[in-house]
Amino acid sequence: MVFCSYGIHPLWMDGAGRSLKTLEEIASEKKIAAVGEFGFDFYNGRSREEEAKQREFFLAQCSVAEKYMLPAVIHVRRGMAELFSEVFLLKRLPAVIFHCYPGTAEEGGAFLKRGVNAFFSFGTPLVKNYPGALAALKELPRERLLLETDAPFQPPRGQERTLPADIIKVYEKCSELLEISLPKIEERIWRNACDIFPALERVNSR
Q1: Which terminus of the chain has fewer Cβ atoms in its 10 Å neighbourhood, N or C?
Q2: How many beta carbons lie within 10 A of that of residue 153, not counting itself?
Q3: pTM of this prediction?
Q4: 108-143 burial, b if ≥16 CB within 10 A, otherwise e?
Q5: Which alpha helices (H) appear in the chain, and where do they start and end?
């Protein structure tokens, strides 16, 4: 089953006004299952200069997600402080999925303690043995984990791009790191996804 999401990436905001109008329209018509990915990205100097614009469209997209009770898919690079400053908005959303989670387990726990229904998604940084990703995956609650590829971005070493099939490598690495069998990892991630998107469970029960 495929669920569609639509959002304005913080680094790709050309025509963001038109995109925001489109987001409102398709959300009202129930054509999407989530809003995003959107958020804050201050990976380079240019993006830091655009902080006000990033915040403007972050707030606008949170508003759409709240209005139509849609989960938010959050992108963040070097912008965790900005997210924490808006936690009062995030806690009003049905779910918040941290795409390719870049933070620590302590930061993730802080979101949960502040009432955010947060889920933390991990991808190929696990396969590439990024220390931060490995540590966060091991320490965050199992019922809050998701897995992804971010295809075609963040390719595994030796590849030009990430492929959808690389999700198998991510699941295998997660199983290894958590010392849980692959079938149990698959079941756990499925249950977590169903908590965000109940329609998944309804489809599976047919």
Answers
A1: C
A2: 11
A3: 0.95
A4: bbbbeeeebbbbbbbbbbbbeeeeebbebbeebeee
A5: 16-28, 45-49, 51-67, 80-85, 87-90, 105-113, 124-127, 131-139, 167-178, 182-196, 198-204
Q: How far apart are CA 198 and CA 179, in angstroms?
A: 28
Report the distance separating Cα 120 and Cα 21, nearest Å: 28
**Nearest-10 Cα torsion for 197, 198, 200, 205:** 170
Can you give the pLDDT at residue 205?
57
pLDDT band per the 50, 70, 90 thresholds, residue 142: very high
Structural contact between residues 68 and 93, judged by C-beta atoms closer than 8 angstroms: no
Q: What Cα–Cα distance (Å) separates residue 44 from each residue in 47, 48, 49, 119, 153?
A: 6, 7, 9, 26, 18
Contacts of 147 (CB under 8 A, 6+ apart): 121, 122, 123, 167, 170, 171, 174, 189
Instruction: Report the distance separating Cα 103 and Cα 85, nearest Å.
Output: 15
- pLDDT above 70 coverage of the chain, percent: 98
